[in-house]
Amino acid sequence: MHIKNILSFFVVFIDLWLLTGCSVINTYKVAVFPPSWMNLVQISNDVYVEKGMSEALKKVLLTQKMESKRFVIDVWGEIKSKPIIYACESKECAKSFNLSAPAHAVSRYTILRPEGFTKYLIAHETSHSEVIERAGSFLNWKNIPQWFDEGLAVVVGPDPRHNESAWEKIISENLPHPSQEELMKIHSIKAWNKATHEYNENLDYS
Question: Which residues are paired to 40 by β-bridges?
């Protein structure tokens, strides 16, 4: 997909993702503690899962991860970042990361709950890692508006919940949604989380 086509989708897609957006994660824990301290075991070079996770769920995760790559490559051309997945099965594990959404990216780490074991969400979070990697520095990354980062991630991971039909439902039923002007003002993660909370309270797109 050409980058100019991506930009034309942003207003629709970031509206939709804003309604189901990323959670605030326990960044310190992810960045500092080794996986073993968090009750995680390694099942592949870049995937760690909660100890005791069922073999069936592990298989789903690894399969969906593999399938997610084509979405990322379709938009980015190649995957330069090397994201590491931490995957939970239990509610206790997710709570230990302060993970309320199905998936969340923290720098080069992607934290998942079972609901996030989909090729769409894994591709979405990988895009966040790509933005950080390609920004070149922390300062450059911080200067990228949050609406752009999230919008691009939604295009990369083409979740059916965020397609044209979902947008048409919002418009036809006159459901609450942020205007384009509001979206363009969302530059920080804090502002994004605030807006996500506001629209999550009004809508259910599960």
Answer: 50
Per-residue pLDDT tens over the stretch 6-56? 554 454 444 444 444 444 567 668 878 899 999 999 999 999 999 999 999
Nearest to 187 by CA among 156, 153, 141, 154: 141
CA atoms of 22 and 189, how far apart (whole Å):
10
Residue whose tokens read 């259910």: 204
Note the pLDDT of residue 176.
83
Which tens digit of pLDDT belongs to each residue from 97-143?
Answer: 989 889 998 888 999 999 999 999 999 999 999 999 999 988 898 89
Whole-angstrom distance between the N-terminal and C-terminal Cα of the chain? 27
Q: Residue 148: phi, psi to the nearest 5?
A: -70, -45
Tokens 């979902």 correspond to: 166
SS (H, E, C) the chain: CCHHHHHHHHHHHHHHHHCCCCCCCCHHHHHHCCHHHHCEEEEECCEEEECCCCHHHHHHHHHHHHHHHHHHHHHHCCCCCCCEEEECCCHHHHHHCCCCCCEEEECCEEEECHHHCCHHHHHHHHHHHHHHHHHCCHHHHHCCCHHHHHHHHHHHCCCHHHCHHHHHHHHHCCCCCCCHHHHHCCCCHHHHHHHHHHHHCCCCCC
